[in-house]
Amino acid sequence: MNMPVMKSEVTGAVSGGSGAPVMAAKVLPLAPKRPALQTRPMTQVKEITARILPPLIVVALGLLVWELLCRKTGATLPPPSRVFKDTYELIVDPFFDRGGIDKGLFWHLSASLQRVALGYTLSAVVGVALGTLVGQSVWAMRGLDPIFQVLRTVPPLAWLPLSLAAFRDGQPSAIFVIFITSIWPIIINTAVGIRNIPQDYRNVAAVLRLNPFEFFVKIMVPSAAPYIFTGLRIGIGLSWLAIVAAEMLIGGVGIGFFIWDAWNSSHISEIILALFYVGVIGFVLDRIVAGVASIVTRGTAAN
Amino acid sequence: MIPYLLIDHVDKSFVRGQSETKVLKEITLQVDKGEYVSIIGHSGCGKSTLLNIVAGLTPATVGGVIVEGREVNEPGPDRAVVFQNHSLLPWLTVYDNVRLAVDKVFSSSKSRAERNGWTLHNLDLVQMTHAKDKRPSEISGGMKQRVGLARALAMEPKVLLLDEPFGALDALTRAHLQDTVMGLHQKLGNTVIMITHDVDEAVLLSDRIVMMTNGPSARIGEILAVPLARPRKRLELVANAPFLKCRQRVLEFLYERHRFVEAA
């Protein structure tokens, strides 16, 4: 049996009523400010070095090990020095265009980026819209969420034959694969963001009688922005992953096809160079979306 | 005669599955124009639920709320709420938080310049003009409540609803803000309903104190009129006999007759 326990609560009486005794406090002079400005440039240089030096050392060591391992006769992969020598022309002149698929790396990369831009923009717009619907309406969630959960596990390339059959062309198929790959994290994160809008903000909106459009623009989007951008960031990564694989299959111009073509002609050095570019561009894309996110969600994340 | 604000036989029960919890029972309360009414009770007695019913954020199960002869059953700027946790939008500046409300309420009746002026005027009322370009995360808790108050006042509500507005503040800030609210009430003559669990605060600020019994099925146990002339001065009231008497009455109600009992 539980005994009822009395909650001996001290009243909030301390808060107001009693007059506080007034005492003169001794004023302590503040210590003079340190001249922080002068020391700054030095510390900044130090900080930058501390950030840049470690990855540089790791890269140098990695290249060294690679060089030593692949230098021996009979090594299947070329050492970095060979890679650089073989691909020197591709590096210094990325803009040549000899017609057909014999183009510089710039053209391949820009073709891939265009596809990603189209597919990703499409999936961002549709994904945020669908995510809002699923987050806001219980019935939409019950109806759509199970389907999303199944579809999102389908690997990107599994969509390709189907979309080739539907579009009968490589270009829209590649864009569709980008779209269908990157849309799921956008939908799911947006929905979570919408569902997590604090009841307080909804109350404020209710008291102000915001109409649905105003509610969407003024409350939903800013409140869910951190979640939406998490989805968008995962999405851009996935679409860059998918494009390389899709282009290997559809052919034409594109960095994926470039890699596949290099493999078929046994230009292993070119593959390595292409991988380097793919990695750098993927990183840059991620940083761009992250940068936009940090500008847009300023203030929202805090508090 | 119909009173300015009438809470008419309000019952509220929450149904979850098979079980039904009755929170409020037979609440009837009249509030006159310009009156400052506090609702006090132990936590969990349903006082916030009652405020939400007046605000229209929670529907009453039985009964209704009438403001100036018209029933209200959905939220609106005529019953502006100052929320316990300020509820400012963190992505907007102090100015924009108030401006959002001003733009919405006076979209047709005031010009752009007038809305700007009105926003600044209300920030000035709560002495927050200096921080108008700051974001809520950059100002203190007391300042956030001031902005919340400015936002509510800017809607020119018929009834101002304060949901434990000083609950999360330290004692000194709270006293300071109480004085601000008292001054504004004096100046603007708003009709105010305030939820509180602080006895001194209730006596200091209110014209009448509504004391609620413990839930479930909380009722209005007693209504105490505070016969103190305004303007009231915090320090002068410390030894004021009617003040102490009111204080004692409320304390007796809360701690003798309706002691907070919690099953362990």
What does this structure look like?
Chain A has 303 residues and is mostly helical. Chain A has a domain at 105-296: Orthogonal Bundle (MetI-like fold), CATH 1.10.3720.10. In chain A, 72% of the residues lie in helices and 1% in strands. Chain A has helices at 36-71, 80-86, 88-92, 105-136, 138-151, 159-167, 170-195, 199-208, 212-250, 255-264, 268-296; one strand spanning 4-6. In chain A, α9 runs antiparallel to α11 and α10 packs antiparallel against α11 (268-296). Chain A is flat, with a radius of gyration of 29 Å. In chain A, 31% of the residues are buried. By secondary structure, chain B is α/β, with parallel strands linked by helices. Chain B folds into 2 domains: 1-78 and 165-264, P-loop containing nucleotide triphosphate hydrolases (Rossmann fold); 85-156, no CATH class. Chain B is 36% helix and 26% strand. Chain B is built from 8 helices and 11 strands. Chain B has a 6-stranded mixed β-sheet, with helices on both faces. A 4-stranded antiparallel β-sheet of chain B has the order 2-1-4-5, covered by helices on one side. The longest helix of chain B has 18 residues, at 171-188. Chain B starts with a strand and ends with a strand. Chains A and B meet through β1, α8 and α9 of A and β6, α2, α5, α6 and α7 of B.
Indicate the topology.
The complex is a heterodimer of chains A (303) and B (264).
Chain A: E1 4-6, H1 36-71, H2 80-86, H3 88-92, H4 105-136, H5 138-151, H6 159-167, H7 170-195, H8 199-208, H9 212-250, H10 255-264, H11 268-296
Helix pairs in contact in A: 2-11, 4-5, 4-7, 4-9, 4-10, 6-7, 7-9, 9-10, 9-11, 10-11
Chain B: E1 5-16, E2 19-31, E3 36-40, H1 47-55, E4 62-67, E5 70-72, E6 79-82, H2 94-105, H3 112-125, H4 141-154, E7 159-163, H5 171-188, E8 191-196, H6 199-205, E9 208-212, E10 220-225, H7 234-237, H8 241-257, E11 261-263
Parallel strand pairs in B: 3-8, 3-9, 6-7, 7-8
Antiparallel strand pairs in B: 1-2, 1-4, 4-5, 9-10
Helix pairs in contact in B: 2-3, 2-4, 3-4, 6-8
